[in-house]
Fold this protein.
Amino acid sequence: MSVAGESGGRAQQMRTKAQELTDAAERATDPEERQRLTDKARRLHEQSKQQEMGMGGRDIDPM
């Protein structure tokens, strides 16, 4: 598998997990738990975008 394919596959896994967290947040009855799950889902979704763009979620050293 190519690096791009691996990146895309990982990004898809992250999006799937983010959706699962979003679903769990919607079912949560405790407002703090709902917010925690929502925040975690949002961060994971952002990481998946970076992963898909080939950045891998890592900071780039500007030298």
In short: The radius of gyration is 14 Å. The chain has two helices and no strands. Residues 59-63 have pLDDT under 50 and may be disordered.
